[in-house]
Amino acid sequence: MSPSLFCKLALGALAVPSAVFAIPAPATFDRQVPGETTSVNTRAGPIKILIGNDDGWAEGNIRQLYADAQQAGHDVVLSAGAKNGSGSSSLNIAFGKVSGAEYGTIPDGAPQAGFNQTDPRLNYFNGTPVAAIDNGFNVLTKKFWGGAKPDLVLSGPNVGSNLGAITLFSGTVGVANYAVKHQSVPAIAFSGGDETRIPYTALQPGDVSHVYSQLAMTITNQVISSTPFLPAGVSLNVNFPKTSANCAKAEDFKFVFTTIYPLVPTIGCTESVRTPTEADVIASNACLVSISAMGSHKLDVDTAKQTTVFNKLSPILSCADVKDHILSSILPLGTVLGRRHDLEDGVAGTVEGIVDTL
Ligand SMILES: *[C@@H]1O[C@H](CO)[C@@H](O)[C@H](O)[C@H]1NC(C)=O
Ligand SMILES: *[C@@H]1O[C@H](CO)[C@@H](O)[C@H](O)[C@H]1NC(C)=O
């Protein structure tokens, strides 16, 4: 941020006496790139979408997803942390007045909650990622939707992958899990392997934030193409691989149904071996996006729910790519274990207890 912008923001703070802080948007500082045209299909019509993340409200990834969801005609509100809250899992803590906001977007000393004066649907909350989405549900739904809950919560795309056991610590996953577990609202957590942080002011057409956002919208559109969007208690954990010369634009990517952990029954394309894990798919370096069905305990859901999700997503899933790029490299755990495992009824309770106290 330029010194002059910071000065204007600081002066704006003095000019706003209310408890809620509105960030003025200097006309000279509008470098936000509008969403590129996507092959978005809004068959289900506009829906109410609440967007959060754990990297902070000014991260390019979340701003681009916000822009693309709006461009697709949805009724979108963003509620995310004033600063990076990576690794906060399901912690729900408010921090009070702002200090050290992401990319200097909010002056130190600003109130705990505030919004962009030009676009009040862009909201920050100085707290953990879950505290920010909690504020979205408890406060912003009244402001924008007459108290109605969102139809869907989107989280991310996170800067960095959230695969396997790492999901337990992810604030991005924590946000999606909060929606499903505490608000009974379906949710999708998106994470991307590319760890380049892009301030929203530096977004450029075709950059990684645009690619991830387009991929996120493709999945979102399939999820909202019919109701219920997802089975009760289920969120999706989605991971995009890093972009590369071969995987440079959204059209280069395919979607694969995965599990978070390997110890679950086989669902989907692979009859003889287990369903590939998220990690199997991302490690394949074959421009494949992993999609897992997560329960409110942050583990894989049972076979019936996985099958429901697989069937719903099947129009966008690629079995050919599983066979070509992944099948040969995964162990047939189904035969090793000799019986079906249902994590939902197994260690789930224990893990849930741990995660809730993080
Ligand atoms: C507020 O929104 C305006 C309009 O989209 C934008 O130009 C400005 O950069 C935004 N500021 C912040 C901090 O989000
Ligand atoms: C965000 O927070 C995480 C966890 O504290 C840390 O590892 C990461 O480096 C932070 N990123 C930035 C850009 O500050």
UniProtKB/TrEMBL annotation:
Residues 49-247 form the Survival protein SurE-like phosphatase/nucleotidase domain. The keyword Glycosyltransferase does not apply. Residues 1-22 form the signal peptide. GO terms for molecular function: metal ion binding; nucleotidase activity. Pfam families: SurE. It comes from the Eukaryota. Keywords: Hydrolase, Metal-binding, Signal. Belongs to the SurE nucleotidase family. This is Survival protein SurE-like phosphatase/nucleotidase domain-containing protein.
